[in-house]
Specification:
transferase, seven-stranded mixed beta sheet, binds S-adenosylmethionine, SAM-dependent_MTases_sf, globular, methyltransferase, single chain, 20% strand, alpha/beta, Rossmann fold, EC 2.1.1.170
Length: 210
């Protein structure tokens, strides 16, 4: 996907007001400026911000159409991917969970700069987030599926929708959780990379639990 195709993809999905385009542009500028102080995104993706980061994150939103009301919790948010993009494009409350101090500061600065009043930042480990009932949980490049589910199951109910971009290893990771976890899991192709996949799941629970 080229950068032009990426912007066209966004325009085709949503009637994006000019102010929202400006926030996406501003977020990209903040990410690139932040790279002077910390490693927020892979250096090799600097020239593909729209395809590799904005659309790669935004493509989760259409899956969330039928999710219940409530918070979207983004695990291991890093520089805010996908959480900040989701918050720019939707009004749903978003909680960004991140444990590294410099990234926590960056996320707080971005949320304030972009006036994203519906974003909150939890600075700490996912395992220490107080029990919650997320409508949606996302995680991009945070942890392999078994560790991801172990660390975050206390943030979910059976209605929680899990949206987990998983690169090229999705099927293997799914196999790894089958002995321990049950739920309605399926795999969707990524629009930014046909060889990458997004694990979409609900009704996730540990086997043997009621
Ligand atoms: C590879 S980065 C991915 C960041 C972002 N989601 C993205 O796709 O660009 C993984 C992030 O997860 C954070 N992280 C790893 N384990 C964590 C944990 N147990 N609790 C909170 N954050 C964690 C790291 O500090 C890092 O910022």
């Amino acid at each position: 996907m080229t950068e032009d195709e990426a912007r066209s993809w966004i325009a085709a999905q949503w009637d994006v007001p000019r102010e929202t385009w400006a926030k996406l542009e501003r977020y990209i500028a903040l990410l690139l400026a932040g790279m002077a102080h910390q490693n927020l995104i892979a250096e090799s993706t600097r020239d593909q911000m729209w395809a590799r980061h904005i659309v790669d994150s935004a493509q989760l939103l259409p899956f969330a159409k039928d999710a219940t009301d409530g918070s979207w919790i983004d695990l291991g948010s890093g520089a805010g991917l996908p959480g900040i993009v989701v918050a720019i494009l939707s009004g749903r409350p978003v909680v960004l969970v991140e444990s590294r101090r410099k990234r926590i500061n960056f996320l707080s600065e971005v949320a304030a700069d972009l006036r994203l009043g519906h974003v909150s930042v939890f600075g700490g480990r996912v395992e220490t987030v107080p029990t919650a009932r997320a409508a949606i949980i996302s995680a991009r490049a945070y942890a392999p599926l078994p560790r991801l589910l172990d660390s975050a199951i206390h943030l979910s109910t059976e209605k929680t929708l899990w949206l987990l971009p998983k690169g090229r290893n999705a099927e293997n990771e799914l196999e790894a959780v089958r002995p321990t976890w049950q739920g309605a899991f399926h795999v969707e192709r990524s629009v930014t990379d046909p060889e990458s996949a997004i694990v979409v799941a609900h009704s996730v629970k540990r086997k043997g639990r009621r």
